[in-house]
Amino acid sequence: MKKKLVSLVLVAACVFSMAACGSGQNSDGDTQDTTKSSEAEETDQEDAEDASEEGSGEGGTLIMATNAEFPPYEYHDGGEIVGIDAEIAQAIAEELGMTLEIEDMAFDSIITAVSSGKADMGLAGMTVDPDRQKNVNFSDTYATAAQVIIVKESSETAGPDDLVGKKIGVQLGTTGDIYAEDIEDAEIERYNKGMEAVQALQQDKIDAVVIDGEPAKVFVAENEGLKVLDEPLTEEEYAIAIAKDNDDLLEKVNSALAALKDSGKLDEIVAKYISADE
Ligand code: GLN
To answer: How far is residue 86 CA from its own chain's centroid?
Structure first.
């Protein structure tokens, strides 16, 4: 008798306090069934949405590690992380029936986040590189890219050969950083964000920036008095980093990528951020 009364009170509490009812369901799903009422039905749906945001959605959560300082591939727009990689990851999650969650971190933390299982995949305009392949697997490639050189409009530096002995800014841990090291007598200045390197160039603290082609265009458009040299330093390819022991996800991501390539969705995403005539 006493038990019944407690139940009744619980039902009443749920009806009058939808929020309390909702949080009860996540932690104690069994007892929730006994208190289900038509009034609570709506709340159940909200709960399901909440749950998927928290990662317990039906197909699970797909965690993407990135460094959102790399337009047009990933960058902050208001409170959101947007860009080509963010949209590709979202489309992959949809193909797999999963919920995407994006974790923003330093670029040189991404490989560790993926290999340790903290994140499921790394999308960060990340170049396939043999050193990285020692720690992670890469998906099929989804974009071609290049390391380019940014200099001041007034600079006499005309191409890669002129970088000898120069002070070069790069983003820490990127392929720009790796290749700049091979330039004879060059002095390398490493920055956490590509944009910081570009600003240092604008302030004459360095002579050139070596960075990926697409962000270079964005940064030069946003900062006066700079130009991108025509001759690139390297040609590269972007792919998605996945933990070595997660062949299952690698396979799934590759088939999702293939579907996005076939359907034209991948081209559509790229075209939204990069105009073809550039
Ligand atoms: N493509 C470069 C790399 O993989 C830079 C990526 C980035 O800065 N997000 O190292």
So the answer is: 5
User: Any idea what the CATH number is for the domain that residue 111 is in?
Assistant: 3.40.190.10
Q: What is the pLDDT of residues 194-237, one digit of tens each?
A: 999 999 999 999 999 999 999 999 999 999 999 999 999 999 99
**d(Cα 87, Cα 224) in Å, to the nearest integer?**
29
Domain count, the chain: 2
Ligand 1 pocket, residues with Cβ under 6 angstroms: 67, 70, 107, 124-127, 171, 174-175, 212
Report if residue 25 sits inside a domain: no
209: β partners: 150, 169
Is 133 in the same domain as 175? no
Q: What is the pTM of this model?
A: 0.79
Q: At what angle do helices 18-27 and 2-16 cross, to 10 degrees?
A: 120
The rounded Å distance from CA 124 to ligand 1 centre is 7
Instruction: Judge whether 83 and 273 are in contact, CB under 8 Å.
Output: yes
pLDDT tens across 105-144, in order? 999 999 999 999 999 999 999 999 999 999 999 999 999 9
Q: With contact defined as beta carbons under 8 Å apart, do 186 and 165 qualify?
A: yes
Q: The domain containing residue 254 runs over which residues?
A: 61-142+239-273
Q: Closest ligand 1 atom to the C-alpha of 145?
A: 1
Q: Whose CA is nearest to atom 10 of ligand 1?
A: 174
